[in-house]
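Hi R.,

Quick one: here's the Acetylornithine deacetylase sequence you asked about.
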Amino acid sequence: AGLQEFEADRQQDADPRFGDARYPYGLSIGRVQAGDWASSVPDRLVAEGRYGVRLGEPIAAAQAAFQARLAVVCAGHDWLAAHPVRLTWTGGTFASGQLPVGHPLLPAMCAAVTDAGGGDPQERAVAAGTDLRLYAAAGVPTLHYGPGDLNLAHGPLEQVPLAEVATAARAFALLTLRSCGVR
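And here's the predicted structure, written out as tokens:
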């Protein structure tokens, strides 16, 4: 319950660009492994998961906040107080990233999408680990735009309508031409 409360606390004051996302800074345990034989009492349990870093939050600060809450949870439980959880950070660690507020790339991209027949795109944030963070950290203005439904991305029903691919290609072409001074 302590980690669920921690997760709920981290959702407070989430960036409004996340829209109606319930857990933009989610915490989920996706893998649990215990013991080495079906009929033996396990001597250890390993749990691995995902922990969302808030927009603008340094990874070290996010990790410290998680570690502090985990220590409180362990201290409040008799067995865990005597056998505290050992936390390690392995695998992918993804910083947040975003386009600087007021950067002209956003309205330029939106205008290109609209002029390419893609409607009026709205600025929003997504809870995902992407390479945008690498460009943002290097000071390169970056945003995500593309065809398809993000709710279907990386899943068994992933699909992208060809008409949306064509619209995105036109939008990128317009943005490129306009960025080079061609009107």
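Helices lie at 2-11, 59-75, 78-82, 105-115, 132-137, 162-179.

Cheers,
M.
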